[in-house]
Amino acid sequence: MNIPTKTLMTIEHHSLQLVYAPLRLHRRPLINKLMISIEEHGQLVPVVVVPSGHNQWMLMDGYVRVNALRHLGKDTVNAEAWNCDPSEALLILLTEHQSRPWEAIEEALLLQELHTQHKFSQNDIAARVGRDKSWVSRRLSLLDGLSESIREAMISDKLSLWSATRVLVPLARANAEHAESLLNHLLKHVVSTRSLGDFYHHYQRSNHQQRSKMVNDLDLFFKAQASLIVEKQTQQLQAGPEGQWCSKLRLIKKTLQALTALTASVLTPPSKNIEHCEAIEVFNQVATEFELLTKSVRRFVDV
Predict the structure, then answer these.
(1) What percentage of the chain exceeds 90 in pLDDT?
(2) How far is CA 84 from the centre of its chain?
(3) Which of 220, 215, 219, 218 has its CA nearest to residue 178?
């Protein structure tokens, strides 16, 4: 990879072209943190630009810094101008010059830009950034099922990366209309990660009719889930540590019964394969923990 010449300069905001803003995550807490740093110490790290016409510069790296400077009312940006084209700059940024660790989705979006707009094959990208083709493929697969609306919400910090990749994207693959309905609800209401995970868990176990009812009245579903959580917390509070202790013991009893039923199929005939040895090792660990529990109980009562 050719190393471009680099020149430090000061650039006015109106001379910057924010072409790659849709490919970078805009996290307000990060901007706020950087604003405090700039107020105290000034802009310590220059942004990266490449030439784009007369007195115009394409911003390649430093979108958070530019946002922070604008919010502070600064007129100019300290920049490092690279004498290369945008595709070369993107390849360098992906390999060695990142002002902050990038999210996997940001890398995926930049790889997609190189693949679709700059016409690099996946093999070419892998070779240029020093990665396996499988890494490039896995990153690009993160964008499968990522609709424009989901992508825009995620980029603009209205939707968390977890919500997008763990719930909305797989949901969109199954039913795009349901995913859009859920997205619209999330953009208007605050929904915890736990509640969203519960929704997706219920959705997976439900039939088509039940799924439609859930999606058609999301407000009712999340309110019902919140009520169940409060009710469970109330029951735990009423039961106290004694109730929780008994509840966990009953769960252990059921688990032990299930393990007893599986023992013959797992350990017969005796063998020395890895799975068999691992099963015995885990059993010994559990047996040790049970012995410690038994000793602890016997300190207080005769059993």
Answers:
(1) 48
(2) 32
(3) 215
Instruction: Enter the DSSP assignment of 185.
Output: H
Percent pLDDT > 70 in the chain is 94
- Closest C-alpha to 147, from 102, 177, 114: 177
Reduced to 3 states (helix: H, G, I; strand: E, B; else coil), residue 175 is coil
Task: Locate the domains of the chain by residue range.
Answer: 6-102, 269-303
Global pTM reads 0.66
Q: 82: which strand partners?
A: 6
Cβ proximity of 154 and 161 under 8 Å: yes
Average pLDDT, the chain: 88
Q: What average pLDDT does this structure show over 283-300?
A: 88
Average pLDDT over residues 290-295: 88
If residue 270 lies in a helix (H) or strand (E), which one and from where to where?
A: none
Considering only the C-alpha atoms of the chain, give the largest distance between any 2 of them, rounded to a whole number of Å.
88
Enter the tokens of residue 263. Answer: 């023992």
In whole angstroms, give the CA distance from residue 65 to residue 188: 28
The whole-angstrom distance between residue 168's C-alpha and the CA centroid of its chain comes to 12
For residue 47, which phi and psi values (nearest 5 degrees)? -80, 170
Question: Could you read off the pLDDT of 137-150 as tens digits, one per residue?
Answer: 999 988 877 788 98
Range list of H helices, 189-298? 193-205, 208-216, 218-267, 274-298
Fold of the domain spanning 6-102? 3.90.1530
Confidence of residue 272 (pLDDT cuts 50, 70, 90): low
Retrieve residue 212's tokens: 């439609």
Token couple for 128: 């240029």
Cβ-in-10-Å burial (0-12, 13-18, 19+) of 116 comes to: exposed
Q: Output phi, psi for 203, to 5 deg.
A: -60, -45
DSSP bridge pairs for 8: 80
What angle (nearest 5°) sits at the alpha carbon of residue 86, between those of residues 82 and 92?
Answer: 65
